[in-house]
Amino acid sequence: MKNVHLPAKLINGGIAGIVGVTCVFPIDLAKTRLQNQRQGQQVYKNMMDCLIKTVRSEGYFGMYRGAAVNLTLVTPEKAIKLAANDFFRHHLSKDGKGQTVFKEMLAGCGAGMCQVVITTPMEMLKIQLQDAGRLAAQQQKPVMMSPTKLVATNTMLSRSYNSGTVASAPRAVSATQIAKDLLRTQGIQGLYRGLGATLIRDVPFSIVYFPLFANLNRLGKPSPEESSPFYWAFLSGCVAGSTAAVAVNPCDVVKTRLQSLNKGSSEEAYNGVVDCVSKIMQKEGPSAFLKGAGCRALVIAPLFGIAQVMYFAGIGEYILDNSPLNLLLA
User: Fold this and answer.
1) Beta strand 171-173 with 150-152: parallel, antiparallel or unpaired?
2) Model pTM score
3) How far apart are CA 49 and CA 56, in angstroms?
4) Which residues of the chain have pLDDT under 70?
5) At what angle do helices 101-138 and 47-58 cross, to 10 degrees?
């Protein structure tokens, strides 16, 4: 196995994350809004209904609400995830016995634990911006929003971040403002709300995804020494990603609910993972844990397919080999 070239892996993961998020973000927005819906308060019937209503009430750029947060932080997040998995795989195969499924699962577990450092605050901020439109629609008071900021009425943001008080006037909310408010009122732990749920989602996801991808990709290799074709790496990433996404969707529903700071008028709050699971089960039934599963599969499949193509095409290696600094040192 070749040595891990960490800078190249970071570049590959970063580019893949930006390209992937740009392509599938509207579906991710629909997933968040569908997951946060309660019984009897459904604003959207399904993914397409959600996207159509979002465009009608918020404009085309309404589908990209919160995308700036993702585009900023997805580079380090995806870079850490892919590079960490490669790093752990490399070191777990040093004994010369090669990779077993168990070792691949351990590497995936390590990658999932590393990425939550970035994933938790990224998701925390993104969810607030994505869900604000649903809260406005639920109150049947559509609000016109600019591409960069949400103009939220007192019905949209009916609770402040820490006290439950009602806002008395419209306020513009951006990811930066939310982060500042959380840091001021709750400290760093405010940004890491839902960390446990994020770990419960991302660690099993990585345990399923990375071994599944590695084995699917291996089937497409003409010989053990050769790489799989471009299309096979993409399809392997799509299949492994969508499978892992659906498998951990119940954890994603719990994470979304826990990280949503602003609730509708009759939406309950949760005190941790166990309380959230219990209340969802009692009030909405087991099917609630599959909310947004289709959307999540559609988001993750191309996201990881693109990531693996970038990774195996060696875009990062090409950039480094042709960088001005490298040419000067050559």
Assistant:
1) antiparallel
2) 0.79
3) 11
4) 1-5, 95-97, 140-172, 325-330
5) 50
